Amino acid sequence: MALKATIFRAELQVSDLDRHYYQTHSLTLARHPSETDERLMLRVLAFARHAHPDLAFTKGLSSQDEPDLWRKDMTGAIDNWIELGQPDEKRIRKACGRASQVYVYSYGGHAAELWWEKNRPQLDRFKNLTVINLPRATSASLEKLAQRNMRLNCTVQDKQLWLADENHSVDVEMTVWQQA
């Protein structure tokens, strides 16, 4: 018998002072049986950082042709393609050809650094690609926020991001490895 996805719900209040975006989003997230709480919360973080009424979670791990999140315009063209982890160069090349902007949120400590060292020469040529690394300590702190029903606040100011629930606050450290 196949394992089913676990459903998480989040009320995410975003106050992005850099973009002047202030909105509350009701999110329903399906956590794939092979997905960790850490990765689930990184999807929430990516949503918060790029929050927009048209931003949507996709099939993610269940699909080879879709990123973790994307934002499409009214014609169906992809404005933002957002990946988590260490996707292979071929997948990123395909994404850069299909979307106006591609974002990769790398995490996993030393494994992410090795992935970047290996793929950096090929990825440098993509002018619409941004690669951001989240240190292991940051992703571990975010993992502690994971609950089946969450009320989260995200504040972005001067390119600093904080994600908090009623009991914990995480100052999200991000290192930009490549900027579009």
Task: Outline the secondary-structure elements.
Blueprint: E1 6-16, E2 21-31, H1 37-49, E3 55-57, E4 69-72, E5 78-84, H2 89-98, E6 99-107, H3 110-123, E7 129-134, H4 136-143, E8 149-157, E9 160-164, E10 169-172, E11 175-178
Helix pairs in contact: 1-4
In short:
The protein is an alpha/beta fold and 180 residues long. It contains 4 helices and 11 strands; from the N terminus they run ββαβββαβαβαββββ.
3D architecture notes:
The protein is an alpha/beta fold and 180 residues long. The protein contains 4 helices and 11 strands, in the order ββαβββαβαβαββββ. The protein has a 6-stranded mixed beta sheet with strand order 3-4-5-6-7-11, with helices on both faces. A 5-stranded mixed beta sheet has the order 2-1-8-9-10. Helix 3 links the parallel strand 6 (99-107) and strand 7. Helix 1 (37-49) crosses helix 4 (136-143). It starts with 5 loop residues before the first strand and ends with a strand. The model has no long low-confidence stretch (mean pLDDT 93).
- What characteristic shape results from the CA principal axes? globular
Per DSSP, what share of the residues sits in E-state strands of 2 or more residues?
35-45%
- Could you tell me the number of beta strands? 11
DSSP helix fraction: 25-40%
Low-confidence stretches: none
Distance between the termini: 44 Å
If helices are DSSP runs of H or I spanning 4 or more residues, what is the number of helices? Answer: 4
Arithmetic mean of pLDDT: 93
Q: Tell me the structural class.
A: alpha/beta
